[in-house]
Amino acid sequence: MTEHGSASGSTERRARRVVDWAVPILLGLYGLAVGFGGAALAVAADRAVIAELVAEGMIVSDVFTDAALVDVSFATARWSGIGLVVTGLLSWAGAAAFVAHRRRERARASGAGADPTYTWTDAAAGGVVTAVTSFLLPFAPMLGGFAGGYLHRNERTSATRVGALSGLLSVLPLAVALLFVAAGVAVGTLRADAVGVALLVVGVVLVSLLFTALFSGGFGALGGYLGGQLRDRDADKPDEFGGEREEGRLGDDRPERDESTAD
């Protein structure tokens, strides 16, 4: 291994350690915020308060009577709060699963089993980047896919696939929350004998989630492809001694191992 190769490998291992810490911490903080927010909303949902808001004209509808509107609003608020709590719990579970998965990958990289591909690790990192930047950037899935694709340095799985996975993973929290919102609206409208409205709301939510998944997965795949291309171009650049940069996987100290075994 050249001096430049050693420095590159050290930089990559440091990047992998940053991912190991950043992903579970950000997932945990997100789950904490969403979970407490959902719990507060579920507890604060009070039928009497909602009825008062309807009577004062702060909540209005051209479709439902006041009594039906109270039922729909109450069910929506209660189910939305529960959905946010579930989303928070799933985020914590995802953080724990990430930590456990990384332990298995490190064990494999040290020689105890087949070489890891880092597919899900890099996709999760890209998904977190997408979630963090989605509040600021309209094409956040592309940025998250680019991050995941650039991190990915294993020829057994493509950077494009990692980018697509990162986009789809970033949609999961939104999907869970929206499904609970749709369930709340459906429960409330069914109590008001408005079956057509319930079906319409559920249909709109499902179509919206499908469009969001296609958008996020597609742009994530594009970002992953671009990240992989940039990674390959950087890897092909000669170092300052005139040699080629050493291609390796992030965090893998064993570039000579057999790559024939799948993850």
Written overview of the protein:
It is a single chain. The protein has 263 residues and is an all-alpha fold. The chain has seven helices and no strands. The radius of gyration is 23 Å and the shape is elongated.
Secondary structure topology:
Layout lengths: L2 H42 L2 H9 L10 H44 L9 H15 L6 H12 L7 H33 L3 H42 L27
Top keywords for this entry?
disordered N terminus, 75% helix, disordered C terminus, mainly alpha, 263 residues
Q: What's the alpha carbon Rg, rounded to whole Å?
A: 23 Å
Which spans of ≥5 residues are poorly predicted at pLDDT below 50? 1-5, 240-263
Gap from first CA to last CA: 26 Å
C-alpha geometry: elongated
Q: What are the secondary-structure elements, in order, as H or E? A: HHHHHHH
Percent strand:
under 5%
What does the average pLDDT come to? Answer: 83
What's the β-strand tally? Answer: 0
Helical content stands at over 70%
**SS element count, helices:** 7
Structural class based on helices, strands and sheet pairing: mainly alpha
Main sheet, how many strands, which sense, barrel? none
Quick take:
This protein is mainly α and 263 residues long. It is built from seven helices and no strands. Helix 1 packs across helix 4, helix 4 runs antiparallel to helix 5 and helix 5 packs antiparallel against helix 6.
